[in-house]
């Protein structure tokens, strides 16, 4: 029987990395992509010490759609039954008129264009295996907040595209799940605030945030339901966070 792979975008850190660890323990073969190939190689060698699985790693900047196309040529003979469409980012947090245009472009290129192209190119594999697509949106896709503008809009896009994929793929046996986390303590804020540790740490001060494993567990719950059950949407928040902006801090 052909070996099946779980394909995780943005596996070098945070939620994608946590998914790689948990799914490796469950025996999934993995295709891992990110820009920081050295981190993917570390993850690969650690996982191969403990798990009898196959792992393929690729250095890929998903914003480069020509590179994305040639990546799919390289993997054309593989069988993929799960996509975790996770690579994404926020850059900056300021009023729309003051925003750096290149930050807007990077978010749109990553969270919207690359997200869409990767989903589109993976669907034929997932249809063949009657597999599962997991898209990572956000509480920011439900609620706009000050300084969130384009990031919130991109995550609202992910939410709507997930729903559209679900409709287009109904009857194919493919499942589509949209996972929408609140605040998860990953590299997300460090990236958003461009390496400023003081500001990024302050995002998670005074309450218990979510951790990447909390989201990976929820994803595994959705994957492990019977094939006839589609978990369509999960909003997962820290207990202390009641909305995008209402966080009860001590
Ligand atoms: P991290 O910054 O820890 O991880 C982001 C991952 O995306 C990294 O592996 C990064 O890899 C990858 N990535 C970013 N840009 C690119 C690119 N151009 N090409 C390839 N890979 C890329 O953050 P999270 O784990 O928190 O974020 C994962 C997803 O979860 C994102 O879509 C984010 O919007 C979403 N999310 C996060 C929340 C949070 O509070 N943390 C809440 C709600 C949603 P590399 O840098 O090596 O390329
Ligand atoms: C990340 C969560 O609230 O910082 O998507 O936008 S938030």
Number of helices: 8
Helix content: 40-55%
What global shape is seen? globular
Average pLDDT: 98
Main sheet record: 7 strands, parallel
Q: How big a fraction of the residues is strand?
A: 15-25%
Sequence of strands across the biggest β-sheet = 3-2-1-4-5-6-7
Structural class determined from secondary elements = alpha/beta
Report Rg. 17 Å
Number of strands: 7
First-residue to last-residue Cα separation: 54 Å
- What are the low-pLDDT stretches, counting only 5+ consecutive residues below 50? none
Give the SSE order as H and E letters: EHEHEHEHEHEHHHE
Distinct small molecules: NADPH dihydro-nicotinamide-adenine-dinucleotide phosphate, 2-hydroxyethylsulfonic acid
Secondary structure layout:
Layout lengths: L3 E6 L4 H12 L3 E6 L2 H14 L4 E5 L5 H10 L4 E7 L15 H29 L2 E5 L12 H21 L5 E7 L6 H5 L4 H6 L9 H13 L8 E4 L14
Parallel strand pairs: 1-2, 1-4, 2-3, 4-5, 5-6, 6-7
The structure holds NADPH dihydro-nicotinamide-adenine-dinucleotide phosphate (NDP) and 2-hydroxyethylsulfonic acid.
Report on this structure:
- The chain is of the alpha/beta class and 250 residues long.
- Helix content is 44%, strand content 16%.
- It is built from eight helices and seven strands.
- Strands 3-2-1-4-5-6-7 form a seven-stranded parallel beta sheet, with helices on both faces.
- The mean pLDDT is 98.
- It binds NADPH dihydro-nicotinamide-adenine-dinucleotide phosphate and 2-hydroxyethylsulfonic acid.
- Residues 10-16, 34-36, 60-63, 86-89, 110, 136, 138, 181, 183-184, 186-188, 191, 212 line the site of NADPH dihydro-nicotinamide-adenine-dinucleotide phosphate.
